[in-house]
Structure to design on (634 residues):
């Protein structure tokens, strides 16, 4: 056994050599076709200092690899000058069990697959004519969600919402240097009134947007909410929307925006469309520039399976 | 994150620098004290070609590390000239989640922890005067169980049972070169009639020893049976035994020899002693050269936690 050990630097390099968006898009289709096996997540929780570890694993039927992904969050690491999140991905050959590669990605591939999923959602649901892009959250995903939209829309006008002036200033500086025209704000209304493509990328537990703020023709991708507690959208936005899409129907009934709306009784289960089906069936995609659409992304295992496979392939492992 | 990648060669080297037996012994004590956390095992099963993957993980409370161990068996690998078993162990820091080491042990540490457990059982349960050692199974464990007894008994007389002449010849040649006097046999009776320390290390699903063959004063360690189907001992041997010991009381009720005997109604749950308690309490150990004792080892997660910690420590990671 002689696995290839791949550092974060090497992973970032190889990500310049292929486009993760079609690879993630293909993953959603395969997932909705029922070809992905995802056993229950393994968990360890520590109390002192507080930390949690998640072991996610799975594979696509009759494929080259199976994947085991380990990620941890130890929130007091910051005091020690260390990153709070750690992670790696193990890629094994599905026909022999041999370990092909160890991707020491430090959670970067999770960021990439999340940003790529946002781009896929926008590709099939955003209005053709994007006037301005509104981003909630000035963190890593607030940046990556924007840059990953580059191949989906020509729009370079952006307004970003945050709660810290310093963070917003840093965001603006960085994104302006990449060619965007960036306005910063601490008022959510300013986003809803000027943008028809909105991405929420915060850990908020109370809604950032209310239903009366949303204009006709707007598409919203909510990707911050991946637990039963987090909540970025007023549930009535999902009630009002013409199209509501989940990355995983099964998961969306237990976490995120759709979970909240179904619980509140304003959204019916059979009204929800799954992203893999939306990609495949034109009937399920946006039909006019007037429709309001919402995509709720909670993160699906097939995404890290696809991105890991793509990295391994690009490195000729 | 800059984990130390440790090859099998390096692992084998470092194992010459410390004794795994006390480290495994300490593990059983910690386990019986209830200080080990072991979540349910993760599993993936493949059909074509057939293969299975197990993810075991756990930690000792308030300790330096947590461990994730991945092992697979792909039984058609032999056709490709590859080992059917693959495995590695990941060692993470319990206070920060940082990956400290990747032990590419290819299942070797599982062999070591199993052999060391056999030595611990013999240390507390074997008669003082070992006349001859009987080994069932001429495979890797049949070898390692014997060599790991070196620090427990001076006895160098061995008889080994197997089902393939070639395998038995190879076993004899190798063990004679290590200074043992080795007889080989295909008849189990020859073992029971001449040995008072017997180790069963086979994947047998039918008993290898019957109750009337066992002499007074014999200790038997059954370590081959780690599932509900495998079975190396006539259940009446456990009925007749003065002392029956499990590495894990909980596990022994679902797999191995004790499971079979409890199912058959010849052994009561409250008669079973746990190895970690036997180590700590002299009252629970062998009391005379006449007693018949049985240790049933099914394998406990604390063993790979302990052996991995010891390797990491010995390498100054």
């Amino acid at each position: 056994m002689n696995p290839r050990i791949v550092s974060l630097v090497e992973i970032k390099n190889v990500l310049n050599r292929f486009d993760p968006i079609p690879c993630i898009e293909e993953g959603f289709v395969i997932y909705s076709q029922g070809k992905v096996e995802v056993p229950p997540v393994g968990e360890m929780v520590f109390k002192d200092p507080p930390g949690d570890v998640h072991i996610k694993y799975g594979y696509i039927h009759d494929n080259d690899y199976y994947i085991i992904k380990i990620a941890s969050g130890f929130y007091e690491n910051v005091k020690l000058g260390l990153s709070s999140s750690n992670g790696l991905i193990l890629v094994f050959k599905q026909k022999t069990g041999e370990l092909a590669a160890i991707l020491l990605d430090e959670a970067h591939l999770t960021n990439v697959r999340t940003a790529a999923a946002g781009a896929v959602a926008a590709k099939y649901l955003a209005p053709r004519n994007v006037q301005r892009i509104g981003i909630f959250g000035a963190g890593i995903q607030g940046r990556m969600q924007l840059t990953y939209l580059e191949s989906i829309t020509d729009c370079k006008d952006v307004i970003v919402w945050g709660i810290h002036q310093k963070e917003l200033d840093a965001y603006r500086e960085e994104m302006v240097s990449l060619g965007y025209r960036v306005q910063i704000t601490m008022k959510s209304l300013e986003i809803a009134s000027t943008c028809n493509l909105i991405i929420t990328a915060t850990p908020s537990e109370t809604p950032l947007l209310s239903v009366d703020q949303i204009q006709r023709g707007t598409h919203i991708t909510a990707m911050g909410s991946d637990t039963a507690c987090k909540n970025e959208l007023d549930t009535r936005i999902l009630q009002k929307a013409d199209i509501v899409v989940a990355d995983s129907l099964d998961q969306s009934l237990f976490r995120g925006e759709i979970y909240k709306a179904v619980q509140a009784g304003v959204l019916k289960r059979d009204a929800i469309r799954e992203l893999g089906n939306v990609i495949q069936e034109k009937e399920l995609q946006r039909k006019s520039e007037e429709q309001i659409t919402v995509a709720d992304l909670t993160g699906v295992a097939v995404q890290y399976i696809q991105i890991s496979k793509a990295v391994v392939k690009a490195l000729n492992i």
Chain B touches chain A at residues 1, 3, 5, 8, 37, 39-40, 42-44, 46, 48-49, 51, 53, 55, 57-59, 62, 66, 68, 70, 72-74, 77, 80, 82, 85-86, 88, 90, 92, 94-99, 102, 104, 106 (CB under 8 Å). The radius of gyration of chain B is 19 Å. Chain B is about 35% helix and 25% strand. The longest helix of chain B spans residues 108-125.
